[in-house]
Amino acid sequence: MEKLTLPNVYKVSAAFFITACILLIAYLASDIFAPLIMALLIAILLRPIVRFLSEKLKFPPILAVSVTVVLAFLVLIGLLSFLAYQLTTFMDDVPRIKEHLTRHYHSLQQWIEVQFGISDWEQNQYVEQSVSGADIFSLSSISSLTNSLMYMVLIPIYTFLILIYRSLLLNFIIKLVPGKNVMNIEAILKNLKSVVRSYIVGLLIQVACISVMTGTGYFFIGMKYYIFLGILTGLLNLIPYIGIIIAGVISCMVALTTSEELSIVFWVIGVNVVVQFIDNNFLVPKIVGSKVSINALASMIGVIVGGTIAGIPGMFLAIPVLAMLKVVFEATKGLEPYGYLIGDEMPHTFNWTKIRLMYTRKMRQAAETKKEQQEKMTGEEDPSGGVDSPDQNN
Q1: pTM reported for the whole predicted model
Q2: Which three-class secondary structure state does DSSP give residue 394?
Q3: Which residues, including other chains, have CB under 8 Å from residue 256's CB and lie 6 or more apart?
């Protein structure tokens, strides 16, 4: 069996080493890179508005960028204010929620005592030990709040500066590559902008649809705070695979604390199952999935790695970062296999016999070609063509 040649081993080893270094740097500097990447994605999304204001309405560049950024973040602040108002309404019902939660808690204690023989006193002791051992206001919670506030300040500033210095950044990228590859870099950048912009627009449409469908479903089953929970479900769905589970758990907890009937939990689960069926079979393939073409395995690994590196922002950024890497890999010589690995192109089957026959046929063709070339070179070296000389005839 033919083994890998040393250059290939060196290339694979170097690729893994560089990847490990990049992940380590991203982990250590996640508070720097996460808001910067978010701002880059928002800048790509807002660029058409800036171009419209500057080219069609003749706004000065700085004014066009300022108006666009301010309007975009005013919309975001309005959405957050609405969620805060809904949360305030939810907090006003805390006494009633506490009463319902106490009833469900006692019912659960009785069921555990009947099924497992654990008395109420033992259960209360266990709960008290768990609560006393948990530090609600830990340093990590304070750090998360600080990071959120920092993101809210840095992302608008980064977005503004990226839009202002767009030409400078593009010229910098062009100067990094040799002149013969400028056209290739231009194509890559255009593809990146198209993929990112389409993906973010698709996400916004997906969030709106899920929010409306979930809120409507909660309204028909008689759930309180259906608007708040619908929007929250749509926003948490931005975190692939994990967000919808968190949203479902929160909705079930709210259902238990606002209603005395346990059956409402099954209705909540039913609404989420129906919404996710519509989302996975209609919204994602038509609106979001066709824009990025990332397979589920790469998406799951990317979300886990992103969450490990930067927490919730890393989970959200995992898919667009993978989409951008896929575009770069597919357009770079030598990196095409990595782009194929991330993509969603699914072969029907894999047959070692077929692969072996294919390579055997190629090797046979190469050997025949080499033999023909050798025979041709031999014929050129013997111009007599095998005819006897006159001396030999005599």
Answers
A1: 0.71
A2: coil
A3: 100, 101, 104, 262, 264, 265
